[in-house]
Amino acid sequence: MKGKPLVSIVSAGLSKFGKLEGLYAREIFAEAAKEAFDRCPNLNPKKDIQALFIGHMGESYEHQGHTGATMAEWAGLLHVPATRTEAACASSGAALRAAIYAVLSGLADVVMVGGVEKMTHRSTAEVTEYLAMASDYPFEQWHGITFPGLYALMATAHMHKYGTTEKQLAAVAVKNHYHGSLNPKAHMQKEITPENALSSRVIAWPLKLYDCSLITDGASCLILTKPELAKKYTDTPVHIIGSGQASDTIGLYERESFTSLAAARLAAKKAYEMADVKPENIDVAEVHDCFTIAEIIAYEDLGFCKPGGGGQLAEKGETKLGGRIPVNTSGGLKAKGHPVGATGTGQAYEIFLQLTRQADKRQVKNAEIGLTHNVGGSGATATVHIYRRG
Amino acid sequence: MAEQIQAFTIEQFYKHLLQGKLMGAKCRKCGKVHLPPRPLCDSCFSKDFEWIELSPKGKLLTYTVIHVAPSQFQGMAPYAVGIVQLENGVKIPGMIRASPEHIKIGMPLTMDFGTCAATQQWPQWPRYFFKPA
Q1: Residue A376 CA to chain centroid, in angstroms?
Q2: What confidence tens digit (pLDDT) does each residue in B37-82 have?
Q3: Which residues of B touch A124 (CB under 8 A)?
Q4: A144 interaction partners in chain B (CB closer than 8 Å)
Q5: DSSP letter for each residue of A296-351
Q6: Residues of B with Cβ-Cβ distance to A212 under 8 angstroms
Q7: Which end of chain A, N or C, is less surrounded by CB atoms within 10 Å?
Q8: For the segment A38-72, what is each residue's pLDDT rounded down to a tens digit?
Q9: Closest CA to A321 of A215, A219, A175
Q10: Which of A1-15, A159-173, A175-189 has the lowest mean pLDDT?
Q11: Contact A253 B105 (CB under 8 A)
């Protein structure tokens, strides 16, 4: 099945990302669902949608579990089989993978897949604590290692091994804020300078405030169907032609390397093989820039450059709009925001817009093939998906 | 049996630490040393282990200085944490008690079993930290 569509995306929705005061997760998800339904008039949601998969990381934020059924109800899909997936920040990347299993198995012809997180009502200390739950408790959390701390450990190792600089990290932040300034749904729509980034307060050295993604509220969703049914719903489907997922040790400390994520490399290899596509064929990518160092490592793990070349790739502007391979045109987790459960399918939403020429000011010209890279925790889960314009 | 073999668990690892011992579990079938110990060897699926005492000395592989900490660690911030490779090759993370400007990748460190006693609530584990060797 090399290069053949596995499933087709016929619609997509995204809530506004940001500090959505007074809104509860289910209300934010309803906003994303409404956009996906409105975008696809040929779809009868109650009749056609046969399953819902929803990525959601934490019960702690709203003291609310049982997210699958809750989101189905509030999206107007009462009684559909609804399943929540949890893989930390890759929760909806994993949900997308589960939705693909469902469609390919033949159990469901049309499914909705999405993700949601409501975070901004909590204090920074509380969010720091909840996010840390995605890491190893007995040896990482127990010894005071935070989530930014884990990526800082990778950053220090990367700087030591390859000479990556804080200026190169800042280049990622500046680029993603520029992209975010072109995205009306982004949490931050303001450009920043390298000086802003370099002088911001230290969170976990060498990572500073502007090296970190945002604590954000938001929801995202996609409507998937079998490729042979896609034209029933839209003239411009986007096909998913490659899907890879892999896992790794929960503790960063147990891994062979701290400068590359094995799960991401393995997921990418699977996805590229399935899609029969090479890194140089990718026209636009959304990668998991939970921290600036994570985007640099993503370039290397995805084969956009050699190991150690990620810092230079960012610095030379090759991943900026108009560059060789634009990355995170949405603004990424850095500027669009990172409502953790919503991130994976939120990335797919941006690729859907890009490949259907709906990305407005941030449109990548003639984009035919896109990629998403979604990472959970410090890399214990990774999903990579490859998309082709239908 | 001369002495009772303790279960190869994280709980037991921390109990040993309270006694001032850094103990790993060696798989009797394939020889892999596990830190933390685990009930099933992830290399060969054996459940046959023996306890071995590990040298608390090692070298620093990478580190960071945490400024924004979770609630329970806020009083200690900023503090350094790193990943240390012990002399037998296994890796373990922990706090480093040294001023950040003196911390360098590759520096020799040794584990100090600390002054922390077991906490009252779950999990009743002590904390260790590293100091320059």
Answers
A1: 10
A2: 999 999 999 999 999 999 999 999 999 999 999 888 999 999 999 9
A3: 68
A4: 66, 69-70, 73, 76, 79, 81, 95
A5: HHHHHHTTSS-TT-HHHHHHTTTTSTTSSS-B-TT-HHHHT---GGGHHHHHHHHH
A6: none
A7: N
A8: 999 999 999 999 999 999 999 999 999 999 999 99
A9: A175
A10: A1-15
A11: no
Write the ipTM. Answer: 0.95
Q: What's the distance, Cα to Cα, between the start and end of chain A in Å? A: 16
User: Are A260 and A297 in contact, with CB atoms under 8 Å apart?
Assistant: yes
Tell me how far apart the alpha carbons of residues A6 and A378 are, in angstroms, rounded to a whole number: 29
Nearest to A129 among B71, B76, B93 (CB): B71
What is the nearest CA distance from B1 to chain A, expressed in angstroms? 31
Cβ contacts of A354 within 8 Å, gap of 6 or more: A283, A284, A329, A363, A364, A367, A370
Return the sign of the alpha-carbon dihedral for residues B42, A248, A106, A4. Answer: negative
Place of tokens 């190991």: A307
Q: Which residues of chain B are within 8 Å of residue A128 when distances are taken between CB atoms?
A: 68-70
Q: Are A18 and A217 in contact (CB under 8 A)?
A: yes
Question: pTM of whole model > 0.90?
Answer: yes
Q: Which residue has the higher pLDDT, A220 or B72?
A: A220
Query: Least CB-CB distance to A258: which of B61, B74, B81?
Result: B61
Which residue is closest to A258 within chain B, CA to CA?
A: B62
Catalytic residue list of A: 89, 338
- From B70, B71, B93, residue closest to A253, measured CB to CB: B93
Give residue for tokens 């922990």. Answer: B94
Instruction: Name which of B15, B68, B92 to mutate to probe chain A: the one with the most chain A Cβ atoms within 10 A of its Cβ.
Output: B68
